[in-house]
């Protein structure tokens, strides 16, 4: 079927994905057969990227609704399907009518947000039909009224748009607006899956935001200091054994770069939780370098521009770093000397002496 399908078509893409899933499923079955000769498997139904598993256990304390027909799912009475990736739920009878692409597939193939604020085109661009199920919608019929999704700017019918609310990434990036607005079910599931992925580069999208939001600029400065401290920890045996960097395992991108943020990071910055969290982590890191570890403390600097013997570090607030040789000085001393680095001067002198000696040797040999 893959070979017979048109090249670079949607049909071939889905067939290849299904083939990979079947091969992975076969490998899992073979591995489980070695451990348990007679296993009890739940059959996985794959529909538009969803991995549906039958839910046979009743859950009387939880109320579910079918994402396809909006009806209540009585888990005590009958079985129902739920996608293990995006939590799409539906009746058994509604499985064949599923028309929504799995949000996990969208988040995996194109992990980006719509950055334009509510890019609405109008009902005429949709031929007066729902953007998902293609049902005819109009303002004249109150039973099938169009509902606007504030995230993607398209109109949906009440079956596909339940007036759920969510924080809109584009409004946060451009306006620092965290008010929840109405979105369709597909956008709600996508935003839920994407909220912890660090895909927002604020330096590219809106660099002025750091000047308007003081907490955000402080968080960026702490992240820059953490990246500097990381250079101490990767070569410190004590830090590796105590797994200091694992304190940021929930936000691993903080030890990889400075510019990327997740939507959850920005929400936590707005609430003040992220700043408190980073300040605690920073205090632990500084304590290790300056007090607990003699090896890390020995990698500090002494300002060559003054007579002070105090050991300083590049992540200290009152220090300046030479961009050429990475030497560290007191900021006041660096300003008084007009950013003239004595270490760079020595390096240039040694380089010139080597060039002169090399030229003398060539002249002597000739």
Low-pLDDT sequence parts: none
- Fraction in helix: 40-55%
Structural class: alpha+beta
* Total beta-strand segments: 16
Main sheet: strands, sense, barrel = 4 strands, antiparallel
Tell me which oligomeric state these chains represent. Answer: single chain
Total separate domains:
4
Written overview of the protein:
This protein is α+β, with helices and mostly antiparallel strands and 366 residues long. The protein has four domains: 10-97, Wheat Germ Agglutinin (Isolectin 2), domain 1; 112-194, Zinc/RING finger domain, C3HC4 (zinc finger) (Herpes Virus-1), CATH 3.30.40; 202-297; 319-366. It has 13 helices and 16 strands. It has helices at residues 10-35, 103-109, 169-175, 185-194, 202-205, 209-212, 214-233, 237-242, 263-271, 273-292, 294-297, 331-336, 342-365, and strands at 44-47, 50-55, 64-65, 72-73, 80-83, 89-91, 147-148, 155-156, 164-167, 180-183, 200-201, 260-261, 301-302, 311-312, 319-321, 328-330. The protein has a four-stranded antiparallel beta sheet with strand order 1-2-5-6. Strands 3-4 form a two-stranded antiparallel ribbon. A hairpin with a 2-residue loop joins β1 and β2 (50-55).
Descriptive keywords:
alpha+beta, 13 helices, four-stranded antiparallel sheet, metal-binding, 16 strands, 40% helix, zinc ion binding, Herpes Virus-1, two-stranded antiparallel sheet, Wheat Germ Agglutinin (Isolectin 2), domain 1, PKC_DAG/PE, elongated, RH_dom, 366 residues, zinc, 4 domains
């Amino acid at each position: 079927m893959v070979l017979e399908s048109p090249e670079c078509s949607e049909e071939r893409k889905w067939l290849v994905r299904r083939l990979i899933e079947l091969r992975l499923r076969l490998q899992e079955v073979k591995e489980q057969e070695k451990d348990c000769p007679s296993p009890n498997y739940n059959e996985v139904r794959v529909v538009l990227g969803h991995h549906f598993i039958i839910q046979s256990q009743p859950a009387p304390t939880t109320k579910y609704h079918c994402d396809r027909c909006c009806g209540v799912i009585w888990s005590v009475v009958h079985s129902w399907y739920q996608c293990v990736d995006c939590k799409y739920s539906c009746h058994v009878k509604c499985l064949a009518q599923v028309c929504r692409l799995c949000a996990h597939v969208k988040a995996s193939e194109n992990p980006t947000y719509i950055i334009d604020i509510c890019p609405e085109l109008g009902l005429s661009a949709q031929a007066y039909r729902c953007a998902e199920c293609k049902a005819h919608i109009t303002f004249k019929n109150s039973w099938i009224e169009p509902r606007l999704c504030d995230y993607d700017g398209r109109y949906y019918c009440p079956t596909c748009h339940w007036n759920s609310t969510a924080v809109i990434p584009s409004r946060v990036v451009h306006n620092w607006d965290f008010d929840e607005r109405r979105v369709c079910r597909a956008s709600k599931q996508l935003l839920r899956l994407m909220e912890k992925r660090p895909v927002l580069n604020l330096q590219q999208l809106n660099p002025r935001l750091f000047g308007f939001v003081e907490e955000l600029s402080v968080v960026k400065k702490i992240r820059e200091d953490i990246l500097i401290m990381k250079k101490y920890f990767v070569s410190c045996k004590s830090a590796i054994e105590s797994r200091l960097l694992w304190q940021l395992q929930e936000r691993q991108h903080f030890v990889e770069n400075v510019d990327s943020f997740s939507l959850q990071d920005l929400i936590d910055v707005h609430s003040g939780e992220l700043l408190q969290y980073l300040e605690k982590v920073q205090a632990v890191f500084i304590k290790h370098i300056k007090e607990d570890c003699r090896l890390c403390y020995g990698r500090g600097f002494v300002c060559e521009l003054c007579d002070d013997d105090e050991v300083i570090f590049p992540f200290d607030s009152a220090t300046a770093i030479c961009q050429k040789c990475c030497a560290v000085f007191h900021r006041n001393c660096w300003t008084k000397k007009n950013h003239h680095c004595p270490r760079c001067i020595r390096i240039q002198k040694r380089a010139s002496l080597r060039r002169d000696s090399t030229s003398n040797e060539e002249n002597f040999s000739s």
